[in-house]
């Protein structure tokens, strides 16, 4: 979806109760908001695409497409949209689920207009902050491009700008998750409810794992500037990846195969770096099945190593969800992730940097719904001198 600039006062209200829609529309319009209505989830999604509101207020329980599904699809269309959920008393499990999918807030029935307007104002503040950050990042990108014309060190500034952009998005996602998990923990403590405590702690652990992964991705990206080149068997790093990922493959019913290079040839490379490179691609291949709707699909991931002319070629192939056309254009140029709130974009950029440090090349082909093939080519060299050291 090509998202147009969002108007900060435009609100979409999705609720299957006509009385609630009528009362809230009158109330919110009297406060200066531009309100559009939808009587069910399907109509709400069509109206969202047509009107592009900055804030969506939706009931959780509706016939057909429920509020959780509306939330998920809206976040897929435009992650910057703030979604406020309307819940009934005792719907705590649904509240937890909505927070896990990045709901901005929730209001319980019967709806208190003061609470609703307060939630809307908070959502507007978050949108304004996000827009200011985006504007600042655009200014920073422009500055970096300007410097790129004047000084030889500008490539470093570009990398810094891209890194900041990638980090700000990843940190925003993690902060939202921490907010949701802390809320559930507080509810568990206040109500002395062990189930809420357990759910909150599981959410908290998930966000701690994300922080850890972000830190490791940053370290991996930084340390590739000093590679340790040695003569290595080109099959060695991929065999290590197979050993590392076999357990997850069995847990997720993924058929995971390696077709090693049969020609005996040592290659001048950093084995650990190539291991990280292939591992990033394999993890992405495994994750590509998370968006597959058919639970009965046979899932395949293959690693192929072969000699092609004067290159060792590594191929990582899957039959997962594929990459959409919009992301294809930027995926190896910027810190772009296909994983929404669960990704940082550092993995692929680290892989690209590793390949370039080996004077190699990386490219890919992908078809939506049919899978992706990444190809890494590393020049065959046997001496340090051949790299110009």
Describe the protein's architecture and organization:
The protein is α/β, with parallel strands linked by helices. Among the domains are: 3-111, 3-Layer(aba) Sandwich (Rossmann fold), CATH 3.40.50.2300; 227-387, Heat Shock Protein 90 (2-Layer Sandwich). Helices cover 51% and strands 20% of the residues. The protein has eleven helices and twelve strands. The strands form three sheets. The protein has a five-stranded parallel sheet, sandwiched between helices. Strand 4 (82-87), helix 4 (92-100) and strand 5 (105-108) form a beta-alpha-beta unit. The longest helix is centred in the middle third of the chain and has 38 residues, at 154-191. The model is unreliable at 1-6, 335-344 and 384-389 (pLDDT under 50).
- The CATH class of the domain at 227-387: Alpha Beta
The shape is elongated
Strand order of the largest sheet: 2-1-3-4-5
Number of separate helices: 11
Content of β-strand = 15-25%
Mean pLDDT: 79
CATH arch. level architecture of the domain at 227-387: 2-Layer Sandwich
Runs with pLDDT <50, length 5+?
A: 1-6, 335-344, 384-389
CATH topology of the domain at 227-387: Heat Shock Protein 90
Largest sheet: 5 strands, parallel
Termini gap: 47 Å
The count of DSSP E runs of length 2 or more, i.e. the number of strands, is 12
Work out the radius of gyration.
24 Å
Structural class: alpha/beta
């Amino acid at each position: 979806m090509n998202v147009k600039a969002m108007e900060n006062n435009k609100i979409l209200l999705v609720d299957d109760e006509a009385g609630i829609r009528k009362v809230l529309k009158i109330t919110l319009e009297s406060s200066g908001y531009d309100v559009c209505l939808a009587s069910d989830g399907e109509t709400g999604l069509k109206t969202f695409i047509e009107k592009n509101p900055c804030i969506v207020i939706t009931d959780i329980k509706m016939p057909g497409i429920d509020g959780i599904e509306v939330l998920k699809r809206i976040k897929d269309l435009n992650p910057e949209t703030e979604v406020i959920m309307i819940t009934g008393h005792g719907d705590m499990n649904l509240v937890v689920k909505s927070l896990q999918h990045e709901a901005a807030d929730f209001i319980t029935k019967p709806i208190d207009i003061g609470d609703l307007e307060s939630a809307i104002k908070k959502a507007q503040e978050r949108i304004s902050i996000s827009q200011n950050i985006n504007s600042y990042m655009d200014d920073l990108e422009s500055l970096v491009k300007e410097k790129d014309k004047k000084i030889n060190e500008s490539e470093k500034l570009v990398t810094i700008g891209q890194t900041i952009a990638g980090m700000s998005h990843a940190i925003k996602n993690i902060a939202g998750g921490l907010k949701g998990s802390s809320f559930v923990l507080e509810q568990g403590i206040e109500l002395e409810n062990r189930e809420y405590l357990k759910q909150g702690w599981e959410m908290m652990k998930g966000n701690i794992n994300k922080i850890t992964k972000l830190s490791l991705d940053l370290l991996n990206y930084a340390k590739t500037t000093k590679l340790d080149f040695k003569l290595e068997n080109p099959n060695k790093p991929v065999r290590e990846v197979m050993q590392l990922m076999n357990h997850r493959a069995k847990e997720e019913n993924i058929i995971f195969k390696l077709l090693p290079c049969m020609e005996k040839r040592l290659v001048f490379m950093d084995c650990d770096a190539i291991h990280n490179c292939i591992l990033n691609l394999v993890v992405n291949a495994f994750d590509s099945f998370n968006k597959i709707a058919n639970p009965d699909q046979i899932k395949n991931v293959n690693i192929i190593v072969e000699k092609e002319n004067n290159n060792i070629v590594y191929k990582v192939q899957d039959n997962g969800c594929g990459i959409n056309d919009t992301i294809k254009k930027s995926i190896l140029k910027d810190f772009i992730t296909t994983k929404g709130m669960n990704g940082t974009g550092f993995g692929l950029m680290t892989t690209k940097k590793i390949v370039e440090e080996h004077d190699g090349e990386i490219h890919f082909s992908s078809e939506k719904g049919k899978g992706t093939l990444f190809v890494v080519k590393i020049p065959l060299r046997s001496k340090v001198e051949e790299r110009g050291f």
